[in-house]
Amino acid sequence: MNTESAPTWEEVAETYGRFIYTLAYRLTGNHHDAQDLTQEVLLRVRKGLDSYRPGNFEGWLSRITTNTFLDRVRYQRRRPADPLPEHSERTIAGSSGADSEAAARDLPDYLQELLLELPPDYRVAVVLKDVLGFAYDEIAEQLDIPVGTVRSRIHRGRSKLREGLAA
Amino acid sequence: MSTQRTDDEAWENEYQSMMSLLGPVDPPAHFVRSVVDQRPQWSLAALLAVGGVTLAAFAAAIVVTAGDVPWSGLTQSQLFDSRASVSTLNSVQEQTTTEVESSAAEEGSGIEPRIRSLVGELTSEAGFAELD
């Protein structure tokens, strides 16, 4: 991960935009919510760039993105009239009888669907570890929770994914 | 026990290879354009433009109102016009007051004796003492 000084906002949008968008998409599961989340993250980044201290910049962006995502989840829970992000663009994997090529093509979508079925806290931990490749201690720092809690969430998240894949 | 461990390891390997399929996601092109359009420089340029227009308007206002009475919001000519209007209104008010007072005095001088005579007639007819 980078440990350089803070880039400008334009550099963030151009260089790290894809990173933020990927995380946002993996957490929300559809492009519409991913775009909203990315927009909000970039706004927060713009406000917070001045206070950024040189260090792990992707970790800092990841922290902002996951916090923004979890804030939204909590907000939507308080307002049940607003539906939680729909899985509008996901594609269900083919049946067990589908040919291997189609199954391989659909597998990422199916995995994404299973990720969305995880509780948000587990989903965040699994995505940061298994999709983006952050270390346990980095995730603990980003989420401001003990490393043991990170390990527990990832373990439980993986177990649920395993159950889903076996079903 | 050993079989379980082997299964777990096999699953772990399979899981990692599956998760590696979840690669980077490219945002739609229109979204990228909209983000670029929100660059801070644009906001700064807009801010500078608005600030420039405001300063220009302020400077123009200072030039236009120079020599006038800024706190009143009036130019000198407007102020003189308003003073003339007030003066006219004052004279009209004085004239009107005088006319009303004299009119009332005239009416009062004619009505009072008439009332007195009517009351005297009524009281004498009724047999009461005449009022002062």
Write up what this structure looks like.
The complex is a heterodimer of chains A (167) and B (132). In chain A, 69% of the residues lie in helices and 0% in strands. Chain A is built from eight helices and no strands. Chain B is elongated, with a radius of gyration of 48 Å. The mean pLDDT of chain B is 70. The longest helix of chain B is centred in the C-terminal third of the chain and has 51 residues, at 76-126. The A-B interface holds A 9-10, 13, 17-19, 21-22, 25-26, 31, 34-35, 38-39, 42, 46, 107-108, 111-112, 130-131, 158, 161-162, 165 and B 11, 15-16, 18-19, 21-28, 31-32, 35-36, 38-41.
Q: What class, by secondary structure content of chain A? A: mainly alpha
Strand-pairing-aware structural class of chain B = mainly alpha
Instruction: State the shape of chain B.
Output: elongated
Oligomeric state as shown: heterodimer
Q: Top keywords for this entry?
A:
heterodimer; A: 167 residues; 69% helix; B: 132 residues; mainly alpha; 0% strand; elongated
Short description, anyone?
In chain A, 69% of the residues lie in helices and 0% in strands. Chain A is built from eight helices and no strands. Chain A has helices at residues 9-15, 17-28, 31-48, 57-78, 100-116, 120-131, 136-143, 147-166.
